[in-house]
């Protein structure tokens, strides 16, 4: 496919007459929708070949979002809130095609999972909680009933071709929103939020995809809530508040690294260009537990700190120029080799509007990459 694209792009004008012949040797449904649009626009209108006529007739099918049949980079949102309170959906969003690809929801109304994508584009989710049937709690507030939940150690792999979640061997510990990372051929499940006391929040386990089994490894030095983890140079970095720990899988050793200038939780992080970017979140006081948005005084930007793994030091980068009342809990992603953040730009009580901002490392500046249409999400 890549060779055919290069051949056509070399001289589109003179070679477009051979497009139908080229297409007859390709699996069209495996091309990204962006490429499909570009190629189909160049189809010769008077070409009567069977291939071209077949493409025209099946055009609606080609442009219908399909799962597991695209090469576009996507943002995976496991718990996308719907308009109905308490309702969620699982989607992939393609910034290139500006379309949503619907995924099957996790089984048993599973919520608050950890998620990771392997280098082979396999999606895994772990832990979380499921609602208990016929069990509700009002927390001593008449008229306000809330479902009660059971924490689980479930582990699933997503079969993109069948659009279904396949159960794998469960984790050894129950966890809510564990940090999942892929490192040196294994999946690591780290900590979790307020489950099983300090011991469970410190536990770390490793999953072997070939053997389908979990093994406990060296625990975290401290019990974390709201932690986030990334991988740089085959080492795992776990961050929460103003703390950073580095795990070296081959030696099984944890090391405490330099502390950040600010103490934040519920932040997002991404490894990019050999550095770690720690973005947004809520300011956290370890003693009082008070949490405030990690923004400037006018609440119009979101804080960013960068960790240099070679120098073992943190420094402050340009803030994300978010709008007033934007959600400080952004999501960092790398799209087409650019560091980006996915952000909600409206107050939680207002209709949701989203955007993607992109970072320019040379200028140390963020700019709006894409405003996401309301009809998309």
UniProtKB/TrEMBL annotation:
<dbReference type="InterPro" id="IPR011705">
    <property type="entry name" value="BACK"/>
</dbReference>
<feature type="domain" description="BACK">
    <location>
        <begin position="2"/>
        <end position="38"/>
    </location>
</feature>
<dbReference type="Pfam" id="PF07707">
    <property type="entry name" value="BACK"/>
</dbReference>
<dbReference type="InterPro" id="IPR015915">
    <property type="entry name" value="Kelch-typ_b-propeller"/>
</dbReference>
<dbReference type="Pfam" id="PF01344">
    <property type="entry name" value="Kelch_1"/>
</dbReference>
<keyword id="KW-0880">Kelch repeat</keyword>
<dbReference type="InterPro" id="IPR006652">
    <property type="entry name" value="Kelch_1"/>
</dbReference>
<protein>
    <submittedName>
        <fullName>Kelch repeat and BTB (POZ) domain containing 2</fullName>
    </submittedName>
</protein>
């Amino acid at each position: 496919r890549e060779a055919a694209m290069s051949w056509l792009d070399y001289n589109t004008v003179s070679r477009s007459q051979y497009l139908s012949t080229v297409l007859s040797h390709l699996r069209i449904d495996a091309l990204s929708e962006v490429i499909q649009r570009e190629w189909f626009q160049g189809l010769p209108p008077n070409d009567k070949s069977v291939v071209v006529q077949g493409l025209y007739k099946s055009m609606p099918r080609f442009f219908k979002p399909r799962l597991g049949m695209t090469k576009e980079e996507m943002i995976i949102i496991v718990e996308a809130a719907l308009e109905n309170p308490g309702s969620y959906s699982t989607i992939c969003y393609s910034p290139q095609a500006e379309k949503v690809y619907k995924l099957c929801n996790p089984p048993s109304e599973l919520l608050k999972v950890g998620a990771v994508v392997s280098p082979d584009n396999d999606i895994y989710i772990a832990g979380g909680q499921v609602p208990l049937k016929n069990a509700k709690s009002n927390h001593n507030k008449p008229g306000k009933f809330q479902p009660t939940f059971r924490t689980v150690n479930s582990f699933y792999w997503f079969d993109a071709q069948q659009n279904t979640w396949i159960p794998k061997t469960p984790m050894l510990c129950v966890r809510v929103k564990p940090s999942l990372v892929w490192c040196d051929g294994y999946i690591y499940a780290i900590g979790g939020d307020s489950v099983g006391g300090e011991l469970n929040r410190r536990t770390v386990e490793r999953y072997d995809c070939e053997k389908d089994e979990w093994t406990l490894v060296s625990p975290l030095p401290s019990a974390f809530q709201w932690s986030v983890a990334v991988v740089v140079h085959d080492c795992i970095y776990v961050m929460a508040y103003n703390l950073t720990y580095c795990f070296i899988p081959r030696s099984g050793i944890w090391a405490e690294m330099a502390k950040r200038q600010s103490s934040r939780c519920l932040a997002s992080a991404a490894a990019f260009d050999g550095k770690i970017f720690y973005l947004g979140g809520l300011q956290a006081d370890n003693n009082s537990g008070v949490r405030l948005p990690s923004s400037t005084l006018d609440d119009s930007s979101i804080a960013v700190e960068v960790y240099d793994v070679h120098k073992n030091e943190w420094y402050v980068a340009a803030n994300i120029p978010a709008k007033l009342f934007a959600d400080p809990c952004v999501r960092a992603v790398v799209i087409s080799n650019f560091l980006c953040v996915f952000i909600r730009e409206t107050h939680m009580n207002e209709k949701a509007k989203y955007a993607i901002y992109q970072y320019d490392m040379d200028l140390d500046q963020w700019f709006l990459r894409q405003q996401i249409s309301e009809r998309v999400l």
